[in-house]
């Protein structure tokens, strides 16, 4: 009561601050309150969640760069597949037409080929290509060094046509292996892009906003605690100032009082020596 009587302006300021804080304080849903009730609004938690937010933003930036690199590689693979398919159509037509020419010139030699040794002269090797942390399978063709069978084919006629058929089908098989490698890498890259984009969207739309909401909640609670401490300190200071004013007034009254006026010489007893 002493503070309110001696400091009306302080009381008005406190009442105004309370009304303003009450009207401007945002209203949260009960669900958000329940979610954030497990996070104590302390400075330590604020620093912890700031570190989490920084790590999430760094991860989001790296995943974004990874997604961009995968998109560039994805477009390159799509372009290479389209070019390979268009060239394979011409190669297949040329190879099978050459087969028809060889059969016309040398007769039906398929049975002689199947009767010979079927040791493969060309094999397919598998390797791995690393693109932005994604392992892509790569198929390559290599020769085993096995001797060529049926060298006597075409001695009577059509030898050049048979050699041309062998070369064209070898080239066609290389293109086929290349296409298989490109399409396999294309599918693997597509799956990796989907996973990366899901992670980017999760960080951008779920994780980082959730951490930001918690940081905003902690900041609001800390600001409210600071306002409460400030109000409490002002009240304590007001009480101290009021008590000091009362004490000062009392001391002034005591100093202004005339002690000699209250002294009566008749009241003193005689002193005998």
Automatic annotation (TrEMBL):
Key words of the record: Ion transport, Transport
InterPro entries linked to this entry: V_ATPase_D
Keyword Ion transport set for record: yes
Gene Ontology MF terms: proton-transporting ATPase activity, rotational mechanism
Domain of life: Eukaryota
NCBIfam families reported in the protein's UniProt record: V_ATPase_subD (TIGR00309)
Family: Belongs to the V-ATPase D subunit family.
Protein name: V-type proton ATPase subunit D
């Amino acid at each position: 009561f002493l503070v309110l009587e001696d400091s009306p302006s302080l009381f008005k300021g406190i009442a105004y601050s309370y009304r303003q804080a009450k009207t401007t304080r945002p209203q949260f849903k009960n669900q958000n309150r329940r979610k954030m009730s497990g996070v104590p609004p302390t400075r330590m938690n604020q620093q912890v969640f700031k570190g989490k937010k920084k790590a999430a933003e760094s991860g989001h930036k790296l995943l974004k760069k990874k997604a961009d690199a995968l998109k560039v590689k994805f477009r390159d693979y799509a372009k290479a597949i389209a070019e390979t398919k268009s060239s394979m159509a011409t190669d297949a037509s040329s190879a099978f037409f050459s087969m028809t020419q060889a059969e016309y010139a040398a007769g039906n030699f398929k049975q002689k080929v199947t009767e010979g040794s079927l040791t493969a002269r060309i094999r397919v090797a598998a390797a791995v290509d690393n693109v932005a942390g994604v392992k892509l399978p790569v198929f390559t063709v290599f020769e085993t060094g096995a001797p060529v069978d049926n060298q006597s084919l075409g001695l009577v006629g059509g030898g050049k046509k048979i050699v041309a058929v062998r070369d064209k089908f070898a080239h066609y098989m290389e293109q086929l292996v290349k296409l298989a490698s490109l399409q396999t890498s294309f599918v693997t890259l597509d799956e990796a892009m989907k996973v990366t984009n899901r992670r980017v969207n999760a960080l951008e739309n779920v994780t980082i906003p959730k951490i930001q909401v918690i940081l905003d909640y902690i900041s609001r609670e800390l600001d409210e605690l600071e306002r409460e401490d400030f109000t409490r300190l002002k009240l304590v200071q007001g009480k101290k100032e009021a008590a000091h004013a009362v004490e000062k007034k009392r001391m002034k009254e005591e100093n202004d009082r005339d002690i000699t006026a209250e002294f009566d010489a008749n009241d003193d007893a005689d002193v005998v020596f």
